[in-house]
Structures
1.
Amino acid sequence: MAELKTAIDTFSKVDIAKLSTDKRNQLNKKLMVAEQALTSETGLPKRGWFKHQIYAPGFYTGYGVKTLTSVRDAVEQKDWKEAQEQIEVLSETLKKFKTRIEEMNNML
């Protein structure tokens, strides 16, 4: 998602120290909402209690953290149907996150 990278690059250029206290507080609230956009109510396959879609312990690795966990687990198990389903879930998650980052960019 090139658009997500562009949004993040734009946001990373902001000098937070130069913002007013009020603006920083508003930004902090939006950052919390952005982080929540990376979660899913249904959680990860086979372990719905893990809500974060970007990082979580792998299903087959114990407590070893993996990124893009649901997709990686499915690919590693050669479960192509689940991999495709999770790619779509992850895609929607990243679109929501991009929208939140763009909202922050627009307020700055």
Note: The beta strands are 55-57, 65-67.
2.
Amino acid sequence: MLQRIQTLFLLIALTLIAAMFFMPLAEFIIDGQVYVFTYRDIGIGIAGAEPLFKSYALAILLIVILLLILVTIFLFKNRRLQMRLCVYNMLLNLGFYGLFYFYYHQVVSTNQIIYSFAIASVFPLIAIILLWLAFRAIRKDEILVKSVDRIR
């Protein structure tokens, strides 16, 4: 149901998380060599080059977050489940930052590096805010439906 504001919030969060699959999360300079941190690995960025670290857990987590947001959009008739899925999705986005820090720390602890974070590393935080706004709007709808049921 695209008329509801929470669907718009969820669609924007879905777009941000999907954009993370095409953008780097951070860049590291180790001994003059630039390494790119993407959702799947930390590597040189050249096709066929061996990555420094592989981050399959981060890729799986992003796919789960993406699918959960998509499922949440289509559960507009079951508001309670939709609210619960929004909360789970916020927790998964926080888990993304935990894994992101873990892989970042793996690189930093082994080398003397210069690093810079890309704009895509902020997308899960924006998605958390959008999911919270969607949760509030869904809760508001649920309260409105309950109040109308009491009047009947």
Note: The mean pLDDT is 87.
3.
Amino acid sequence: MSLDSLRGKPVYVNFFASWCGPCNAEAPSIGKLRAQYAKRGLEVVGIDELDAAGQGAAFEKKYGNPYALVAIDESGAVGKTYNAIAMPVHIFIDRRGNVTTYRLGEMSPAEIETAIQGALK
């Protein structure tokens, strides 16, 4: 998967792991916001960080597939590129490819929605 394939679209990238408590707490809200903003072009990408492949699939199933696309980063190499030193990490990118919000750590549903709205502008 490449972010180049999402060029011209607002994108929310969420680094998560099945073992991450805050990631589990956020997943239902991410799924609801994904559905709410899909008509406005928002793409939500989950990057399963440091999990075995089956764990990420179980996480997705448990929370009703909160992500449009999921990539597995078992080694953590992708996470290092994005400075994902802890989970979760939230990156919001506007249609021009500019990062509008980068957040390390848990976000409330309201904070996620505000960041989504900033990426949609």
Note: The chain has four helices and five strands.
